[in-house]
Design goal:
Layout (H helix, E strand, L loop, with lengths): L2 H22 L12 H19 L5 H18 L11 H31 L2 H5 L9
Helix pairs in contact: 1-2, 2-4, 3-4
C-alpha cells in the first residue's frame, strides 16, 4: 500500500468516526455558517464517499453504496435513543444515500477511465520516464 493510499485510509476512518460522534452528540457544536441539517448530512456523506473511494479504489460501487446506506441508518437508529435527545428522520437517511449515489456516479466513470488508460498505455509510459533516443 502506498503512502498516499495509507493517508486516505486513515483519513477515511477518522472522518467516519468523527461523523458518527458528531451525529450522536446530544448538543453538537454549531458549524460556521450554520448549515442546515440536510446540508450537514450531504457534506458528511460526500466527504466520506470520496475518501472511501480513494482509500479503497477496488471496492465495488454497490458495496460502498450499501455500506453508507447502513451507516446512515445506524446514525438514525442511534439518534432514536432517548438519552441523546436527538430525533431520527427518514429524510436525513435519504440525503445520506443520495449524496453517496451522486459521488459514486461522478467518481466511478473517471476511475474506470483511468484504469483503462493505465492498462492500454505502453509500459514505459506507466513505469518509467520516456527515454529520448539519440540519432547518430
Amino acid at each position: 500500500m502506498t503512502l498516499l493510499r495509507r493517508f486516505f485510509v486513515v483519513a477515511f476512518w477518522a472522518a467516519l468516526i468523527f461523523a458518527f460522534v458528531m451525529a450522536v452528540l446530544p448538543k453538537p457544536p454549531a458549524l460556521p455558517g450554520a448549515p442546515g441539517d440536510k446540508v450537514q448530512h450531504i457534506i458528511a456523506f460526500v466527504v466520506l464517499t470520496g475518501l472511501a473511494r480513494l482509500a479503497y479504489p477496488r471496492a465495488r460501487t454497490l458495496t460502498l453504496l450499501l455500506a453508507f446506506a447502513l451507516f446512515g441508518a445506524l446514525i438514525e437508529l442511534t439518534q432514536m435513543l432517548p438519552a441523546l435527545g436527538r430525533t431520527a428522520a427518514l429524510d436525513d437517511w435519504i440525503a445520506d444515500v443520495a449524496a453517496t449515489i451522486v459521488v459514486l456516479a461522478l467518481l466511478d466513470p473517471a476511475r474506470h477511465l483511468l484504469a483503462r488508460r493505465k492498462r492500454s498505455a505502453p509500459e514505459h509510459m506507466v513505469d518509467e520516464p520516456a527515454q529520448v533516443s539519440e540519432a547518430g
